[in-house]
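Weekly modeling sync, notes
Attendees: S.R. (lead), two postdocs, one rotation student

Agenda item 3: backlog of single-chain predictions. S.R. asked that every request posted to the team notebook include the full sequence so nobody has to chase files. The rotation student volunteered to paste the first one in as an example of the format we agreed on. Action items at the bottom.

Example entry:
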Amino acid sequence: MLGKRQHQQSMYPPWKVMNPASFSATLIVLIFAVPYKGLQGQNPDYSLTVPDSVSVQRGLCVHIPCSFTYKQRDWPSPRKLYGYWFQKKDRYWHDFTHEPSRHIPGILVATNDKRQELRASVSTRFQLTGEPEEGDCSFSILDARSEDAGGYYFRIEDDPLRWSYKAGRPQVLVTELEGPQIWASSAVLSGKEALYACLAPGPCVEIQAWISWTTSLRGYETTDWNQQHMNRSWTYGSNFTFTPSLNDQGRELTCRVWYPNIQEQVTKSIRLEVADPPKAVEISTNATDREHLAWCSGEAGGGLESAVVREGESISLHCHATSRPHPALSWRKENETLQSTGQGEPCVLLLSSVGKEDAGEYQCWAETAHGSANRTLRLCVLYGPRLSSNQSRSTCWQEDGSLRCNCSLDSWPLPQIQWEADGQTFSEDSRRGDPRVTSRARENTVASSLSWAAGDLDKSHDIICRGTNHLGTYTIHFLFSPHKKGECDPLHLPWLSAGLVVSLL
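Predicted structure, as returned to the notebook:
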């Protein structure tokens, strides 16, 4: 399927990947990047700089840069300098038209001397593109044939100047016509438009190389183009645009190029590799606690998955994800990568003897070169009440004729705190105004305060702070004596219905 041809001429071939002409850049370099070497004749006044060798595919073209020097004489006026390229052939001689008695070995293939007759097989295919009077001996071979292989040499004449650079350079190698190249502009992703380009070198003249595509894919478009480069070479191309799906994995795409000048066709086939970035990540656990799952989910918010485990138990987190190619899986917590049992399917994170510090959000990441996806799980750890890490928050003191106490306990679920003063129970929702109880919660800690304005400071008092959840109870016991003044210093006792006895100093 051929679309409208677009002709482009560029002084400098673009290299940007998305530009169709850029696909030709590598191809042109492969054909024309050749080593240069200066060739010296027997006389040091005459030198020739030309590639040692060049290679060209049959039916295509090659441009051969060349420069030379010679001993110039002081003529009163400019003279015409003629340049001649000869192909070295045994038992072949060229007879100069204006001097039939003079013979030069080889076959004359290109010259700026219009007096000379060239063979029909070379007259339209070889061109002397340089200007000999400027020291430029460059020439091109168009529509190369097998018989063009071999050594060449350059000759100049300007009566009485005559000189042949007979070092036999360059050597021309003519190879068989190769298939085109197929390039992808980027990774081929499922659901995203993809661009393939088929590139083929042209025969250096506007003899079109016809490009077509063969495939079982549907819903594609093609656009043909060509470009001429500074070295007079041509690149023909065709862009193939479509939106792949996962069902297109492994389907064949074939580019065919027909060269009318040599009546031959070459092809190139590829099989599609369709990538599918990770889209969905699944997390599962071996946690069995469902009773407190709603509490954990409520804390997580945002629809995050949740899991609940008791302190001291173990839990395993399993991560699954699909993509093409298979993704690398990893577990992270607070941007720190955790050690898991592997990056395959599934990726398992084992947490042994869980502590309250293991609670938090865990992310499973699925990553490939084409994208990534992640999923978060909120892990809640059940543990009974205990004294908060900031122990100084649990104390009693006298202030403005009142007795004030603070009690700070930590647990999950959060503890319910009650106060006892001389055998009477008080809580934040008690109707009695004195003692007055206030509490506030932050993360896994509840800080409760008791203010007893009516307390008789001239006698002893027993004050108890008790925090309870379904896993146990923690008690702090404050002892007030009227004979001592100051703050209470806490004494630690084991938790779980145990107590902390504090004496008022």
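Discussion: group reviewed the output briefly. The domain at 281-383 is CATH 2.60.40.10 (Immunoglobulin-like).
Action items: rotation student to repeat for the remaining queue; S.R. to check formatting next week.
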